[in-house]
UniProtKB/TrEMBL annotation:
Gene3D superfamilies: yst0336 like domain. GO terms for cellular component: cytoplasm. Coiled coil: none annotated. Residues 1-122 form the Polysaccharide biosynthesis domain. It comes from Anser brachyrhynchus (Pink-footed goose). This is Polysaccharide biosynthesis domain containing 1. Pfam families: PBDC1. InterPro entries: PBDC1-like_dom_sf, PBDC1_metazoa/fungi, Polysacc_synth_dom.
């Protein structure tokens, strides 16, 4: 059941960043707090292409655990399992997806949206529609 919910969440999110400029998305009521705490704690974390070790190794878990716990009671189901893309320029595939907590997903995706990393998805989804419209005008 949780796997189905995680997949549906991933699908809805990917459709959202494909159709709305991610720079303007607000994912939670606590986006400002999440982003501020995330960048304060993980200022050097490369978010465009994630290294799974930065999320799953024992030293990483020791750093993530206190970060995640700050959002207990702030973000609903903050520790619920969800799917996270490793490379933000690609979709959800078996090779490009890792299991993460919901607050890790929010922290990384809010940063990706604000820092322009997810714009590649939006722009590539927009491009085919623009090309079709242009062909219709020139035909």
């Amino acid at each position: 059941m949780w796997a189905m919910r995680a997949y549906q969440h991933a699908e809805v999110y990917f459709n959202l960043i494909s159709s709305v400029d991610p720079k303007f998305l607000k994912l939670t009521k606590a986006d400002e707090q999440i982003y501020g705490e995330f960048r304060k704690t993980f200022g050097d974390l490369k978010i465009d292409v994630l290294d799974p070790e930065e999320l799953k190794s024992e030293p990483a878990k020791e750093k993530w655990r206190p970060f995640c716990m700050r959002f207990e009671g702030v973000v609903e189901d903050f520790n619920y399992g969800t799917l996270l893309r490793l490379d933000c320029s690609k979709g959800y595939t078996e090779e490009n997806t890792i299991f993460a907590t919901r607050i890790q997903f929010f922290a990384i995706e809010i940063a990706r949206n604000r820092e322009g990393c997810n714009s590649i998805i939006y722009n590539s989804a927009k491009k085919p529609a623009a090309a079709v419209a242009e062909e219709a005008v020139t035909a």
